[in-house]
UniProtKB/TrEMBL annotation:
This is Purine-nucleoside phosphorylase. InterPro entries: 2-thiour_desulf.
Length: 148
């Protein structure tokens, strides 16, 4: 069983109320092989919402209290990202997920790259908050880009 970013199966749950639909992800859900999650919604953030980036590190640093998640209006939304990550982990554990396919570059779900925290569209290596928590709990995380 896998968990997948809900936006990848077509849910309009991204910050801008759009999706990143991938037919392969939708098919996994239809076949009962994957469960969709949106950590940002699970953490209590609305849709649509202000875009957010990790400032001062990556998802591991956020979990360790060494970095913050800040939206483009300067609001600290760190706790909502952490709460959502723990809710996604709970779902993953309940369904016995051993893998996750997550949306690349997201401050929650990025598995190889995230934005650099300056809202300049510049990217850096690193993982999002949910990806980091899943990895720490033995769940293999990959990007939807690995399907292409």
């Amino acid at each position: 069983m896998k968990v997948v970013s809900a936006c990848l199966m077509g849910c309009e749950c991204r910050y801008d109320k759009k999706s990143n639909w991938h037919q392969e992800i939708e098919q996994l859900v239809k076949e009962g092989k994957a469960i969709p999650v949106c950590p940002e919604q699970l953490g209590g953030l609305p849709t649509p919402r202000n875009p957010a980036e990790i400032v001062g590190g990556d998802g591991f640093d956020v979990l360790d209290g060494n970095a913050r998640v800040i939206d483009n209006q300067g609001n600290d939304v760190t706790q909502m990202f952490i709460d959502g990550a723990y809710q996604a982990l709970r779902i993953a554990k309940i369904v016995g997920a051993t893998e996750a396919i997550l949306k690349e570059r997201s401050p929650s779900c990025g598995s190889r790259q995230i934005y650099n925290g300056t809202f300049s569209k510049m990217k850096k290596e690193g993982v999002g908050v949910t990806a980091a928590l899943l990895i720490r709990n033995g769940i293999r995380v990959q990007s939807e880009e690995s399907l292409e």
